Amino acid sequence: MQKKTHLWKTAILAALPLLVISGCGKKSGKDAKKGDAAADSAAVAAKEASMPFTLKEGKRLYNHYCFECHGDAGDGSGQYYGFSLTPQPANFTDKAFMKGLSDETIFKVISEGSASVGKSNMCPPWGKTLDREEIECMVAYVKTFAAK
User: What is the pTM of this model?
Assistant: First the structure.
């Protein structure tokens, strides 16, 4: 019995290089698109792996609390439960707008809500939900949208 198991393992190991080689080469059609998507996913994963913890945590928190309104790209094009918002949420990709905001102002908006700086009351205060370090991570991440 043990000899049969050993023969199966040997056969599988012998066939493995053939399987790998047959899978290599140029793909076409749907396979090429799947390959491109996999490459894109790998590039995103590699970029995120090299990201400092502060930005990773900021991104995680932004995606949980902010992207519904501000959008994945931070351009204010998010849709809260499929509805367009009025007034439109802040566009974090607007370099001139972001340059006019200090870290303290961004922190205050996240912590106390947008009404705390004279804007719409639609952006809620997250200061009782998030601690200081988490908000600082979000500030750092939000600033990356204008740097792109």
Answer: 0.67
